[in-house]
Structure formats: structure tokens, C-alpha cells
Amino acid sequence: MKIAVIGAGVMGLTAAHVCALRGAEVHLYERRPQIGRGCSWYAGGMLALWCEMESAEPLIGELGLESIAYWRMHFPHVVEKGSLVVAPPRDVSELKRFAHRTSHYEWIAREKMAELEPDLASRFETALYFGEEAHLDPRETLDLLRAKLVIDYGAIFHTDTLLSPENAEGDFVLDCRGYEARDVLPDLRGVKGEMLILRTTEVTLSRPVRLLHPRIPVYIVPRADHHFMVGATMIESGDRTRFSARSMVELLNAAYAVHPAFGEAEIVEMGTDVRPAFADNLPRIRRDGRILRLNGLYRHGYLGAPALARRAADIVFDGAVFPEVER
Amino acid sequence: MADTVAFYGVEVASRLMLGTAQYPSPAILTDAIKRSGSDILTVSLRRESTGGSGGHDFWSMIGRLGVRVLPNTAGCHSAKEAIVTAEMARDVFDTDWIKLEVIGHADTLQPDVFGLVDAARELVGQGFKVFPYTTDDLVVAEKLLAVGCEVLMPWGAPIGSGKGLNNRFGLKAMRAHFPGVPLVVDAGLGVPSHAADAMELGYDAVLLNTAVAKAGDPAGMAEAFALAVKAGRLAYLSGAMEARDMAVPSTPVFGQPFV
Fold first, then answer.
1. What pTM does this model have?
2. What ipTM does this complex have?
């Protein structure tokens, strides 16, 4: 079985991996010079299934469980430390609202907070601790996936190569181009996101922290070498170029509210890109002859891609049908 | 005769206006709007428009719903900013309606009533039909009418707070003071009974967003608000009884052995 994958973001790479696991000969085509430089690059990498259920549809829960199992099985660097949800004292009602909509958490007070995140203990009296959640570093993960594909499965990467799925050779073509696939998916829309990477040695976090606020919910994910990813805005827009001053103010304000030491942090990077989404914010597989279009992962790239990839492989190899995503 | 309400000469049947922000997805927003029966939606221009191609996917989706769009200047902190946003909204949505918000305080989102009157004067001069988001202050309301606003939208409580009608006395006074002006309670409603409360006071309509968008089932909550608005309106038209301190039996009990 020869499979061409167009687009080497988290969707394309996991699809290639799952197909390679089943013995396919895989070619990947990426229009950029390097793999994984689309919105997968700017993701938080939170495997925050239970938190996401606050506003996501049940399907995301189903896909998320399968995807988390995939990451745990294949990637030892998944960090199993859960995640924390906090709110400024006057917005504690937001925390209660969040708790009403979610499950798999415990309310924790200062002592437990001091144990989990000592730097935050004096700042938040209470928090929700989602102990079963995990996170990963998206950039490291994308590189590992690429290495795995090349070394273990002999997959061929064609970077700097703009290829239309219609022109790709192979028994099947997996179109994983994200927002670029609007030419064939007219109901796909863009949801712009902006993120920052900060560096400071003055604060240490072991797990992602979400700050609830009625207007600007923001999360901070610790990365290696004192780096912190702060994200992400959600704007109905297909523009992937401009990082607005307002977004910067909001993200930094939120980071500062979590810990004032972020006020002194170095801004290492400002990133912006566009999440591909359908109207219900749920991912889909659309069949078009030998082409399968895997798209619409919205803000659930790492939480949805492996499960969508597995379904695509089952379609390719077994002729399986998945009504929940084939819409 | 149908009990419609008119804003700037446009008659609408529904007295519930909905905002379009913060929904879990556009599909859920669409369901909520259908269940609410709303004829008027507010759309915030500010954030979506910050980049060239802007939020056209989202706007065209709103456009396809077939309801009237009331663009708003949410998040504007000065008269000038609000005016620029209104001009942009006129081009994007092809309407001269504008819900004018000039925020005076970033934390409480309280309107800056001075900037509001200035911006309203300028926009009316440019031919806009202005729906000003204001407080329940009668003097400010008079000034807004004086510069040409023909609708007033006083707050129930701070935006997104879900507190209901914070100052019923002030809102009642406003209704009594401006009997002929369409009045819409905008912001601060949390549950359907708050909307019914506003309608029972004689308000012409209510506008809300968070209470529906952030509900567990936004579409269900949208319908609940629609029913409450209808109930409150019908109650107002039907003339409520006066409350009193003592019990009054609804049937004479004297001499009836079995009561």
C-alpha cells in the first residue's frame, strides 16, 4: 500500500505514522522548508481532555481518550503531572462554573497547591486539579515523529514541495493541509490564535496552569530551560500574519496575574497562526475518491489527530466507516 | 394585531436580541439563534477585524441566518475608536445601525457616558442609527435623545455579571420618564426571570449574550429566555395586580363549612 500525505503538521505526521505502523509505504509532502511549522508549531501541547470538556462536544472526549493513549504509548516524553485551573480571587465564580461543566478534578486548597506548585501557593487560595491530564512539548513531538517515520519506517519527506492532493501518486492520498485546504473544503473557517514564549528563571511550574477570567482565559505551559508558552487567543479570522497589541496586552496581563515574575520575563517568541475549523468545531474525514481529507481539528490538534489518523488508516486498509467524523 | 416593536422604523416581532460572542461553536450559536426566535443579532466587529481578511467566514455565516445584524463597538474605550469601528461596521455589514459602546472602565466595563454622548452626536450626524449602551441615568439619557438617538439601552447590571436588574427603581423611573422611546435592557441578565422582570417593567426588549452563550445548553437557554421575554411582555400588557401586605382570600370563606 502506497500512501501520500500532503501537509506535515501534527495531522499529517500522525496519519503517516499510523499508516506506516500498518505497513504502508509513506511519502509526505510539505510546502514549507521544514515540517510542522503550521499551527501545530504554536500549540500548547496540553492533553487536557477533561478541561476541554468545559465547552467541547462529547466527540472530542472520545477522540481525546484514544489520542492520549497513543501519545503515551509512542512518546515517553509525555509529562504526566496533570493540570491546574485557577482564577483570581474575585472571579472564583468562574472556577465554580468551570467545575460544574467538567469532571475528573479535585478541589485543592493552599497546602496541596504548595505541594504541586510552590510558586503559586501564596497566590491562589483554591484551584481545580485535573490529575489525569498530561502535556507534551509540541515541537519536540513533531521532530520525534519525523525521526521515527524516517528511521523506523523509511518514510520519504518531500519538503519545500507544493503538491496538490489530486496530483499525488499513491493508492490513497491523505490531505492534511489544514486551513490551506479551503480550495476543496469551502465550509472550513479560520480561528486565529496568538501565543507567546516567555523565559524567566524566577518562577517554576511543573504543569500547565489555566487562568479563568470572564474575558481572557489563558493557559501557561512550562517548557524546557525555563521557557513558558502563554496562549492563546481565539479570534474569528483567517489572518495568520498579525499579532495585535491588544492580544499582547491580554496574554501578558494574564501571565502577570498568574505570577508577577512573568512581568520581568524575556519575550522569546511571538507566534500567530490559524486553526482550521468547521462550524461545529469538530474534525472530519471527507472522502473524495482515493483522497481522504482530514481536517477541522480546531484547537484540538494533539487531542484529536492520532484518533482521526487511526480512523483514516482503518478506512484505507479495511474499508471501515466512521459516521461520527465522515460528515 | 401583532405585538411588534419598532426600532428606527423597522418593526420586529421578537423582543429578544442576542449577542454572538463566546459560544462553544458557530453551529451551537446557529442553533441558539433559531431556538430564540431573535430577529436582531449583535456582532462585535473589533476583534475579528484586526487583520486584513478579517472574520469574513464568521460574518458571512451570520449573514446566512437571515436576521438583522446590529454591529456593536464592543471593547472601544474612546469616542474616536467607537466612531472608527462604526464606520468600518457600516461597510462590512451594509447597515447604518450601530450599537454604540464606549467603555469607561476596563474592569467594570461601565460605559463612559461622556464619550458615549460625543460619539452618538458624531455618528447621528453621519447618518447612523445609534443604539447607545448607557446607564440608567436620566440626564445622560436625555442628552442621548437630544443628539438624535431614538433608542436607549440601559444596563441591567455590569456586562457579563449575570446579576439581573441591579437598580429596578432607576429602570422604572426611566420607563416612566421616556414613555415613547424604545427601551432595551442591555447587559447583566443571568437567568430568564431577569428578562421577564425587565419586560414586566415595561421595557420594549432585552439584549443578552453571556447568559445564553455560557449556558450548559445554549440553545435550550435561548429558548428559555425567549419564553420569559414573551411571558414578561404579556404580563406587562395584561396589567399586573398590585402587591399588598395582607392576605385577601380569593373566594369568600365566611359561612362555608368545608373550607
1. 0.84
2. 0.77
